[in-house]
């Protein structure tokens, strides 16, 4: 029996602008299992980021249930949600979201502050993560002294530093050129190969082709959910 990392049941999400309801997710039911590598695709405005924010415990659904690694997170209060997020999830954003005044090393160490780990151990662990993304020689640099690809590698190291069970990435190569995008996708491939569960949003077919499973969202519902043909074994 495979273990669900993510179990979604009839997830709905509306935004409210005054009295006007904007329904964005219209009943999403989905299981993602341990060590899957999933690309989430779909047109702009189809609800990909809304879904990712719910998966990442950055937002809660209007209705439906979300079981993350066995815990019902759909009805949790903000404090508990933040705790689960810190422990279970590494989130990578298109805009990197690094702290501009902190060095690469300090940025990577941030999640360890919330985990209550002492400074010496924090910096050692952060350095080990920077080595994994081959940026140990940029540890003292601030984000504005790094290229876009290097910033994203710092952000990936930060997402991994707490050893989360789930890595979520919302258009992680959206601001990068093709060559740099390939380098970043190689890192996600290595993350998956080392046993992580990865869900990544992209609108580029070439990027999605790195994933084993491709889910397409359209107008707030799942339009298709298939195994990448590359990985279908035929005899
Ligand atoms: P995608 O990531 O697929 O482009 P989003 O999930 O960002 O789609 O957005 C889906 C719809 O929800 C869009 O119409 C967007 O304008 C709207 N939306 C997203 N976030 C908010 C918000 N915080 N408040 C109001 N409307 C939002
Ligand atoms: Mg988006």
Q: Topology of this structure?
A:
Layout: E1 4-17, E2 20-33, E3 37-41, H1 48-55, E4 63-68, E5 71-72, H2 78-88, E6 89-93, H3 104-114, H4 119-132, H5 148-160, E7 166-170, H6 178-193, E8 197-201, H7 205-208, E9 213-218, E10 221-227
Parallel strand pairs: 3-8, 3-9, 6-7, 7-8
Antiparallel strand pairs: 1-2, 1-4, 4-5, 9-10
Helix pairs in contact: 3-4, 3-5, 4-5, 5-6
Bound molecules: adenosine-5'-diphosphate (ADP) and magnesium ion.
Family: Belongs to the ABC transporter superfamily. Macrolide exporter (TC 3.A.1.122) family.
Domain ABC transporter: 6-235
Organism: Chitinophaga jiangningensis
Question: Can you describe what's shown?
Answer:
With 235 residues, the protein is α/β, with parallel strands linked by helices. It has a single domain (34-60, 78-231), classed as Rossmann fold (3-Layer(aba) Sandwich), CATH 3.40.50.300. 33% of the residues lie in helices and 29% in strands. It has seven helices and ten strands. The protein has helices at 48-55, 78-88, 104-114, 119-132, 148-160, 178-193, 205-208; strands spanning 4-17, 20-33, 37-41, 63-68, 71-72, 89-93, 166-170, 197-201, 213-218, 221-227. Strands 6-7-8-3-9-10 form a six-stranded mixed beta sheet, with helices on both faces. α6 (178-193) links the parallel β7 and β8 (197-201). α3 (104-114) packs across α4 (119-132), α3 (104-114) runs parallel beside α5 (148-160) and α5 (148-160) runs parallel beside α6 (178-193). The longest helix is centred in the last third of the chain and has 16 residues, at 178-193. The chain is globular. The two termini are 25 Å apart. The model has no long low-confidence stretch (mean pLDDT 94). Magnesium ion (MG) is lined by residues 48-49.
């Amino acid at each position: 029996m495979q273990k669900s990392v993510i179990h979604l049941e009839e997830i709905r999400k509306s935004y409210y602008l005054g009295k006007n309801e904007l329904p964005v997710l219209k009943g999403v039911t989905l299981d993602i299992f341990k060590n899957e590598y999933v690309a989430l695709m779909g047109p702009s405005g189809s609800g990909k980021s809304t879904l990712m924010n719910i998966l990442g415990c950055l937002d809660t659904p209007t209705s439906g249930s979300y079981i993350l690694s066995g815990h019902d997170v759909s009805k949790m209060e903000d404090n508990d949600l933040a705790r689960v997020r810190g422990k279970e999830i590494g989130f990578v954003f298109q805009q990197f979201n690094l702290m501009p005044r902190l060095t690469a090393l300090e940025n990577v160490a941030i999640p360890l502050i919330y985990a209550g780990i002492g400074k010496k151990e924090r910096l050692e662990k952060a350095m080990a993560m920077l080595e994994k993304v081959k940026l140990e020689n940029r540890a003292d640099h601030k984000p504005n002294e790094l290229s876009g690809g290097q910033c994203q590698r710092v952000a990936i190291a930060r997402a991994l530093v707490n050893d989360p069970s789930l890595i979520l990435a919302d258009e992680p190569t959206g601001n990068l050129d093709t060559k740099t995008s390939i380098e970043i996708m190689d890192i996600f491939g290595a993350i998956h190969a080392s046993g992580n569960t990865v869900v990544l949003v992209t609108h580029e077919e070439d990027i999605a082709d790195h994933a084993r499973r491709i889910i397409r969202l359209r107008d707030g519902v799942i339009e298709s959910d298939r195994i990448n043909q590359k990985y279908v074994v035929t005899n």
